[in-house]
Amino acid sequence: MNLLIVNFKQYEVSTGSNSIGMIKALSSGLSGTKLQILYAVSSTDLLACREKFGDLIMAQHFDPVPSGPHTGKVSYNTLSNMGIKYSLLNHSERRISYDLILASIDAARSRQLEVVLCAASREEVKKFAELDISYIAYEPPELIGGNISVSTSKPDIVREAASVCSSNGKRLLVGAGVKTEEDARAAVLLGASGILVSSGVVLARSPGTALSSLAKALS
Ligand code: G3P
Question: Fewer Cβ atoms within 10 Å of its own Cβ: the N or the C terminal residue of the chain?
Answer without folding.
Answer: N
